[in-house]
Amino acid sequence: MNLSYRLRLLLVMLSICVLVGGGLFFKKLLIPDSFGAYGPYRADAIKEAVLIPIRHRTNTSCFKCHPYEAKIHKKGRHQTISCEFCHGTYADHVTEGKKTGTLPVKKEKEITTLCLRCHNTEIKARKEAVIKTVAMPNHLKDQDVKLTHNCNQCHHVHAPLKYIIRAKQITGMMEVGS
Ligand code: HEC
Ligand code: HEC
Ligand code: HEC
Ligand code: HEC
To answer: Which ligand is nearest to the CA of 120?
Structure first.
């Protein structure tokens, strides 16, 4: 029961050793090897980030293989819009300069949904001055067409005002016999 003074001192010293030793051991275990090489972060994270494959590219990267669409797109009001926004990711389509995958191409109603993601009057975050918006179905009523008309029946998707077909033409062209 009555431990001698020396024994108690020894025990205290021992537990300090165990605590410090254990602390150092876990510190070594938990801190990654390259931590602190350049600053208070894991230096290897840079090497790893460099190896992450690039998924998105600029429109210019699409142009060389799609000269037809490029020509139209560059002249139209959509020239500032990313091809990838409407078609999906470069990396899903091209690997090492060759076409390796098919990109989705929207059609019919899907196109209208796509257009309205940016042109819906309901989008209050964008100022009218930046992107002109339309109210649906009023826009179609104004043009005197059926509400089933899709945007691309009048607007070219790649240059929406360039080849615009006036509503009268459209009604004449599309509504006959329908
Ligand atoms: C605002 C959305 C939008 C943007 C931006 C856009 N496209 Fe499209 N694109 C479409 C839609 C919708 C279609 C299919 C409808 C159609 O042909 O009228 C299409 C059709 C195509 C097609 C023909 C696909 C096929 O086989 O039918 C190609 C190729 C294409 N786009 C490439 C591009 C490239 C390259 C760019 C950028 C320079 C681009 N697109 C920008 C919406 C867009
Ligand atoms: C290395 C050449 C190459 C590049 C770069 C390229 N494409 Fe294509 N793309 C093709 C070929 C080849 C086809 C099939 C033939 C065609 O429709 O012209 C195609 C077809 C498409 C189609 C029709 C659907 C499909 O996948 O078959 C779309 C949409 C399209 N490309 C969009 C794009 C967009 C957007 C980019 C840029 C992000 C792009 N392409 C970059 C070669 C390319
Ligand atoms: C990613 C957002 C986005 C999508 C999707 C989009 N647009 Fe646009 N659109 C714009 C922007 C931004 C402008 C204005 C460009 C400028 O003024 O530089 C524009 C311009 C226009 C204009 C000309 C309006 C004007 O007088 O300035 C029309 C018409 C139009 N888009 C129709 C369409 C149609 C039809 C579709 C679907 C095929 C579509 N847009 C899809 C962003 C988009
Ligand atoms: C029946 C043909 C027709 C259809 C379908 C159509 N539009 Fe239009 N749109 C027009 C005409 C015509 C204009 C006026 C163009 C002009 O002023 O030269 C116009 C103008 C616009 C403008 C510019 C508005 C402004 O304030 O200047 C936008 C944005 C637009 N349309 C988007 C769309 C979208 C999105 C769809 C599909 C939901 C669509 N349009 C469907 C014929 C049509």
So the answer is: 4
